[in-house]
Each structure stands twice: as structure tokens, then as C-alpha cells.
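We keep the chain:
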Amino acid sequence: MNAVPSATSRSTLTRQWELLKLLPPKGPGFTTLELKSLLSDAGHPTTKRTIERDLVELSRLFPLQCNSKGMPYGWHWMPGKSAELPGISLSEALTLRLVEDSIRPLIPAFMLKTLEPRFNLARQKLEAMSEENPSARWLDKVASVQPELSQTPPEIKADLLEIIQQALMNDTQLSCRYYSAHKNQFHNFTLNPLGLVQRAHTTYLIATAEPFDDIRQFVVHRFEEARLLASACCKPDGFNLQDYVDSGAMQFGTHEKIQLEAWVSEGLARLLQEAPISHDMLLVAEDDGSKLTATVNDSWELKWWVLSHAGSIQVHKPQELRDEITQRSRAALELHEC
């Protein structure tokens, strides 16, 4: 029967392995105090004396060198002998586990395959170190939730996602069959892929559809068929994905800015003071509430936000927004009074 290493042995091995990875390939090297700080940052707090003992012990097994030309001494690999050691640090393992689910739809499938061993290694490292290292248990103490009604993420067909990613990677057009949920019908498109955007649990392909130039958002899980074309992607002049996102396009609506004026309750005013809805937002105290002014995007998201605070906000301007909120509120009231 194979002996199971004790928690102390595992802790020593993981610390020494991390120490080897931290050593530079050439002099003057790191001092024991510098290595102590680096190890602590990597989740392996220990003493200067322990590091000194580790280095002496490791130097008997690995081509390590102590630069004794000046005080304090620095440790490094012998010239030409540095090693690319396998494994990942504790901080890398934590980072991979925290971002794994959110980045999967955004990474090309062929790259994701090479990352799978890293994801598995991250899980294994955290499990192995959880007993003796509090940092390895950090995932048990943090969580991320979406500020909206919890919904099960839609399933994306892996083969179609890979084709979409290939078209995006190679700047080629995409022939597809797409389901329009609002119209409840299928459409055949030739798309010019411009980017992938993750918004909460939904992944969007940003693209133009031939022969039009307007930039549209296609929900990735609604693709029924997809095929790569040999023809090159026709990108709009000057298009930049980050600029597109920063413009507020993913809030759904026009790209136009509007001047919002409204009355808000005292409770909502306090929330807005903590998290303003724009950089120029102003709150002026009034009887039983505050006057709100802010420059915001004219978007569906703005309307959803106003409706979600029904009873705590009254839109004054612009009149078009006030009319739409009134109409939606009346429709909801009529529906619930039936």
C-alpha cells in the first residue's frame, strides 16, 4: 500500500516547489528576505530560517547557486540550468477557478482544450492544500451573484460555438440559421463577425448581416446552424469592440444620450448616492425625496431600471420616456387586475 504523505509533508513539498519556481535564472538572485515576501504573496508564509534550510537542502538536489560576493546573499539557478517547472502557484489556481466559468464562452475551443489541464490542475492543487493552507480555502468564502432574477444559463451548442469562434479568429464570413425569439421565426444570414461579448449569463455575437452595415447583436445559443465561408469578413471602418461596448450598446437601445430628470424617494436617493447612474448625476433634496438629474443612455436597461423602482421614482423628462413608463405601468396594472 502506498503511504499517504502527511499534511506537513505536503506543505513542505508545495512550499519548496514554489521556492524553486521563484528563483531567477541568473545572479545576483533573490535574498532570503525577498523570497520570504514572495512566498507569502504566493500563499506560503514561513520564516527566514526555514527558507535558508530549504535552499541548502534543495541545492543538494538542484543546480542552485548562492551569490556570496556581497551581503545579503542572493540565490539563483546556475547559468544555463534554470528549469521550467510544471505546476501552478496557489494564486494562479485561485484565479483560474474564479474565472473558469465566465471565460469559457469567450475562449476559442482549440485554446480551451489546452487550458483544460490547467483548470484540472487548479482544482487538484486547491483540494490538496485546503487542509493546511487557509488561502486554498478562499473559494469557500467568496461568491459572485448577478443583480437580477436568477436564471439557468442557456445551453450553447459546443460545435456551433467553435465554428463562430473560428470565423471570428480568421476574419471570415459566417453562413448561419438563426432563431429570432421576438418574431418566433428562423432567418438565414451571412454574417460578418466582429466580436463576442458576455453579458451576465448570455453570450452575444456582435456582427453585421449582409448586405446591411448596421451592427447587430446575435444571441449565441439561438444559432441553429453555422458554416464557415471562405469570403473575408467585411468590417465597418474604424470598428473597435471596446469602444462599441463603452458606448452603451449592450444596454440595448439607441446610442443617444438623454437628460433624465425625475423625483426619487429618500430610500432610492440614498442608494443612488452610493452608486450613481452617471458621472454627472445630481441629487437635490426636496420634500419627501430628491430631484434627480443625470445624463444616461436612452436604452431598454434604463427603462427596466425605472420600472424596477416603481413607487420610488417619477420621471419628469424627457416626455417620451415618461409616456412609455406610464404606458407600461398601466399595462401591468390592467394585467394584474384581470
The chain has a mean pLDDT of 85. The longest strand covers residues 185-199. The chain has four domains: 7-77, 90-141, 158-246, 249-337. Residues 56 and 144 are 43 Å apart (CA to CA).
